[in-house]
Each structure stands twice: as C-alpha cells, then as structure tokens.
C-alpha cells in the first residue's frame, strides 16, 4: 500500500485494486482564516483527482473543500459515503456534480472490486463535527490502514478486532477557538491553553496505545493563519499555551515518551507500507530543518495568499441586509423547536456587532448593534441591558454574510474562523454551540431527538386514536408537529416517511420501526 501525503487530513492511497483520495483541502476555510500547512497548492491535483474512490470524512470545510472538489476532482470517481443521519454530505457532493456513491454501513466491512476492503465508522452525535464525523479503515493484501482524522470514537476496538493495523493516521493538534477568543487576562489564556495542549497530546497518545499500530502518522492539523489579524495564532512565538503545535513538535513529544514509529506526512511525502515495514520518501532533505524554518515558510506563504484573503474579505459586506429582522426570520422558527437545547441554555445569548477590527484589545472597533437570542422566550430581539451568561462579539459584516448565504452552521463558519471574541459566566455549555450548528429544521430536529433519546424514558405522544413515540425513527423529527395519520398509516411530513401503526413497520424503508399502540379510551358510564 502506497500512501502519499496531500496536506492536512488529505492523502492519496494506492493499492493494486484501486486508489482512494481523502479530504482534499487546498483553499482557505472559515472566512479565509484557516490554510493548510505546509502549502499543498502546488501538488498535481488534476492527477490526484483521478482517484478511483473519494472519501470525504465530514462537512468541516478543512475536509470538504467545495472549490477543489468541483474544479479538480473527477466526477467519475466513486464516493465512499459515511452513514450519517442526514443527507447533507451527499446533497452537497451531488450539487458539485458527483453521481456515483456507495452508501456504507457504519462499522461494517465492505469488499470492493479486486479485494480492496474498506470500513467507515460514522459518529453521529450533535457534538461530532457538523452533525457527523467519521474514520476510514482500509485493507489490501494483508496491509491495513486506519485514517482516524478528526474523529474521537469511544474506543478503537472495532478496528483492532479486524487485525493488526500497520498505519494509524490521526489528529493531534487543536481545531477549535478555545481559549484564544475568550476575553480573559493573557495569563489565564496561557494557563488554559497549556491544559488544552496537554489534553490533546494525552488523548492522541491514548489512541495510539489503544490501536498499537506499526506506524503512526500525525495528520489533520494544525491549520495556519495567514491573515495579519490572526497571525498571532500560529505556534511560532514560543507560547506554551498555543493549542496549534505542529507535526514536528508532536513527534518530538512522542520520542520523549519512547515512541520511535512516527512518520510526518508533508505534501508529497510517499510511504510504501508493507506488513513488515514502512519506506518513506520525503519531499525535503530534512523534515526537522523544514519545521525549524517554519516562520519563514509562513511569511512566504502569507505573501502568496494576500490577494486571496483580500478578495474573500471584499465579499463579506451586505449592508442591504437588516440583521435583526433577518435573524428573527431565520432563527425564531428554529428556537420554537429547540426544547432540549433551550432548557440546556436557559437564558439569552448576546451578539455584539461591530465595525472595524474585532478583538478584546482592538480600539478601532465600533459597536453598532447588540442582538439577543433569547432561549427562554424563544425570540430574537434587541439587547435590553439584562445580564447574560453568554456573549459573542464579531464584525457585523460576518453576520451579514452568514445571513446572505443562508448558512445553517455558524460553528462551521464563524466560530471556527476565530474572527470573534467571547465571554461567559460559568462552565462551557455544549448546547450553545450545538444550537448554532443546527440552524435548519432538519438539523434541529435530529439534534433535539438525539438529546431526547439520551433519557431512559423515551416520550410518547397521542395522535388521534394512537399512542406513538414522539420522535420519528428516521431523522428524529417531532411528530407532534410533523405527524399525520390516515387509515392507520402515520406520515412524517418532514421527509415523507410512512409507518404502519398496527405493526410498527416502516413502509418507506427497511428497519426504522416505530413504537405504536392503540389509544385506550376510558369506558363511558351508563346513563
């Protein structure tokens, strides 16, 4: 098995039975904040794009690069699709022109032509990526590879039980906005960053020990930040609280722990993996020296990308949009369905919108509007001076752009961009960020149903003469809103799925039985 590094979480896997291209990210992501490092734009993407199979692990934009997928990846390729609870990944790939799909079943090995075997494990909680994350296992001629990328499964036994893994590729660096964007004293940011950096390394080492593969490839990070406004997030200043350490830093850490089986995959690195060894050819004479000169590489990269960043920024302003009115129109219908999340948040979340540069130490940013998303009264309204536990501060034009494009996932856009600052009273609340990645009816219904199902006593409702489970077995739509019964058949009007209530059988698809029973009507007293 030959594995060629193609940047970040992307790789080109070649076997005697076909090739697989994974997560081909090249173009800037998240409001032109994240770039792959090292620069991979000089690779022959037209050749790489002729792969037999394409695997996109999830919809985070440092894995799903719509521009590269549309322009450079052959539409004749066959997409290996994770078993996600919504169709969004397939829908977006189809919109780009892809037509050939293999819908995998999570944790089930699939044998492709020529003896190539693959298995995709899909993680589907609302906190896994943008409603989903996944890992890819590949086997050919007795050699096995696991591309874990960003995914954080509870354990790796499902892969380990299939036989010894020879190459384990996994994330090790930060991919979040915490703690950098929080309005805290620098000493506190550094302390929290040190803790997070240590947890990242510890988690990765636990995964490495759990799988015990022959060779370890640190991938899926870190991004680099080429905009002058975000330059300080690069790990080039000796800041021990920076959460974006690079591959060389992590490999040095592994060596200190006694591990000597790590391979750094740069763009263009080629690893010939066999059951007995791993022969590596690097595109640079000395990998350690390359990273020792990281700051200069970043400065050169920044100059090459300045025109790209400025063009992106020029597209963000949409002054014709009434932000408050449009947020009310888009978000209030979602709020009305957010039973679990509203309870979990329990109060208002405030957005302070500014013009000019944003940041807790910027003096040229002028606040122009404050808007509250109120999870108690389920409304979007102007801020009225009340105390809030959660506050975000960002440029107004970024919110304008999210509303202009109809973005349903503000996490996979605004928050991952790090182009905001935040403050909170109390502990981290996952419901806040889960809500803002679910600004569509499909996503909010799935997430609400998922949270509801974590309770041991699943809720039933009465519909006409029937008692049925509240959440549709398909994608967890609320049947108090979307359920309609005619002639003993329940139709979920969210996606049109039908269920025979007498048997509980799903008429639309195999599986997905519904819990249902006739409603018991109390006997009427004799007159």
TrEMBL record:
Source organism per UniProt: Actinocatenispora comari
Cellular component GO terms, alphabetical: cytoplasm
Organism phylogeny: Bacteria, Bacillati, Actinomycetota, Actinomycetes, Micromonosporales
Keywords annotated in UniProt: 2Fe-2S, Iron, Iron-sulfur, Metal-binding
Gene3D superfamilies cross-referenced by the UniProt entry: Ribonuclease Z/Hydroxyacylglutathione hydrolase-like (3.60.15.10), Rieske [2Fe-2S] iron-sulphur domain (2.102.10.10)
Signal peptide positions (record): none
GO molecular function: 2 iron, 2 sulfur cluster binding; metal ion binding; monooxygenase activity; oxidoreductase activity, acting on paired donors, with incorporation or reduction of molecular oxygen
Database matches in InterPro entries: RibonucZ/Hydroxyglut_hydro (IPR036866), Rieske_2Fe-2S (IPR017941), Rieske_2Fe-2S_sf (IPR036922), SCP2_Rv3818 (IPR057330)
Pfam family, one: Rieske
Record protein name field: Iron-sulfur cluster-binding protein, RIESKE family
Span of domain Rieske: 467-507
